[in-house]
Design goal:
By secondary structure, the protein is an alpha+beta fold. It has five helices and 14 strands. Among the domains are: about 170 residues, no CATH class; about 120 residues, Distorted Sandwich (Glucose Permease (Domain IIA)), CATH 2.70.70. It starts with about 40 loop residues before the first strand and ends with a helix.
């Protein structure tokens, strides 16, 4: 290809046939001065004697098209040459991201399973502890019922509901795993951020469970401490009751020994009541043997104390008048106030005013009530087992023969009837018909009262 600008017109060649002649030269007119046309750029392509002329716009359009097609061809060739490698890398990257999230899902599932298992274990342990507390509570209530049979003991054994809103509450239920598909396409953060998020989620889910477990453990600890205090109070109460009954029984036996009452008097006074039934041995429950043994000892001591109390209820060791005790004459040999000679005084004279009540000193039955010689108006009460008491010089009698009288009951009014120099109460105690010093009984009563 070549290019030229403003080509000159070629001189036409003429062909002449025939013999050669000398060229005839004709005069040429003088050339006119040619005008220069406007120059237009042009591109000529010459090939095999042929020329193709192009304008600049067409030329550059053709060149640009050729360049674009070449670039497109090169890019297409490059794409097809490296397509497999690029796709492989993209697929590997996508697979790496998917594996990272599958690992995250597996880790979350494992954490959820561990948390669920731990919560189920905590709930099972809480249920066992609560069941133990309920069984222990029922045991303490049964102990309180057994202790309530002892009238001298205050019922105990039940615990009050926890104050300030404390109640039984199970640990928070384990969160149910949400269904997660096995094949998931993720467009999300990379692996490191996914693991960080999974740890944060696990820590956030575990925090409420740990708080709930601590709260329930605190409640159970407080309940167990409360039950411990109740149980300790029950054992302390039984120990105190046993000591109380044994001390009372010891004092009563000592008093009866001082009075010379034992053996036949004790057995006769403690006549059996209307009780009975088949013998069924006691089988102490599991974990309750110590309490049963201690309760059995307390019951035995109480039964012995009640037996002695029944005996002492028929022993006249109480004073027969109200108020301070003042003796105007004692028991034994004295100068007779009427004859002035030594005489045996078979009782005690209690200083009192006319009309004051004379009270019986023990349970018994009236065997005499009326006028009896030097006693004047007199009441005699049989207390059983050979024990009797007499109340003389009464101004009035308020019972009759055959009446059953109780301790402290008024049987008459103080007076000065019979062989008496002034108002007072003549009081006698007799064992098998023989008069004994009433002060022996009064001193025993003082000891018992002090005990």
């Amino acid at each position: 290809m070549s290019s030229r600008t403003n080509p000159q017109p070629a001189t036409p060649l003429r062909h002449v046939s025939g013999p050669a002649r000398a060229p005839v030269r004709h005069p040429q007119p003088a050339p006119k001065k040619a005008q220069k046309p406007a120059r237009t750029p042009a591109y000529i392509i010459a090939h095999a004697g042929r020329q193709v002329r192009f304008g600049p716009v067409v030329f550059w359009a053709a060149v640009g098209s050729i360049v674009l097609m070449g670039g497109w061809s090169a890019a297409t060739a490059t794409y097809f040459a490296f397509r497999d490698d690029v796709l492989t890398r993209l697929i590997a990257r996508q697979a790496q991201m998917q594996y990272a999230y599958e690992d995250r899902i597996a880790e979350l599932r494992a954490r959820i399973d561990r948390t669920t298992s731990k919560q189920m274990l905590d709930q099972e342990q809480f249920g066992r502890k609560l069941d133990q507390i309920m069984r222990r509570q029922a045991l303490l209530e049964s102990r309180a019922t057994a202790m309530s049979a002892l009238p001298d003991l205050a019922p105990t054994g039940s615990i009050k509901p926890p104050a300030r809103g404390i109640s039984f509450r199970e640990p928070p239920a384990a969160p149910k795993p949400s269904p997660i598909n096995d094949t998931v396409t993720f467009v999300a953060p990379p692996d490191r951020e996914a693991r960080l998020q999974s740890r944060a989620v696990a820590a956030r889910d575990a925090a409420p469970h740990e708080a709930g477990v601590k709260e329930t453990d605190g409640v159970i600890t407080r309940l167990q401490a409360s039950l411990d205090r109740v149980e300790q109070h029950q054992f302390a109460t039984l120990a105190s009751a046993e000591d109380y009954y044994e001390t009372r029984a010891r004092r009563m036996r000592a008093a009866l020994g001082d009075l010379g009452l034992g053996g036949a008097h004790l057995r006769g006074a403690a006549a059996p009541r209307g009780v009975g039934g088949p013998f069924v041995p006691v089988k102490p429950g599991a974990g309750n043997a110590t309490f049963e043994r201690q309760l059995s000892r307390v019951s035995a001591s109480r039964a012995q104390t009640e037996k002695l109390t029944q005996v002492l209820a028929h022993v006249p060791y109480r004073k027969p008048v109200v108020g301070p005790v003042e003796f105007s004459s004692g028991f034994g040999v004295r100068t007779d106030p009427f004859l002035g000679r030594p005489a045996m005084h078979t009782g005690l004279d209690f200083r009192a005013s006319t009309g004051e009540p004379a009270r019986v000193t023990a349970n018994g039955k009236v065997v005499k009530a009326g006028w009896f010689g030097g006693y004047g108006r007199m009441v005699e009460v049989d207390h059983g087992n050979g024990l009797t008491t007499r109340y003389g010089h009464l101004s009035a009698i308020r019972v009759k023969v055959g009446d059953t009288v109780r301790i402290g009951q008024t049987i008459g009014d103080v007076g000065s009837t019979g062989r008496s120099t002034g108002p007072h109460l003549h009081y006698e105690t007799r064992i098998d018909g023989e008069a004994v010093d009433p002060q022996r009984f009064l001193r025993a009563g003082v000891k018992l009262a002090a005990g």
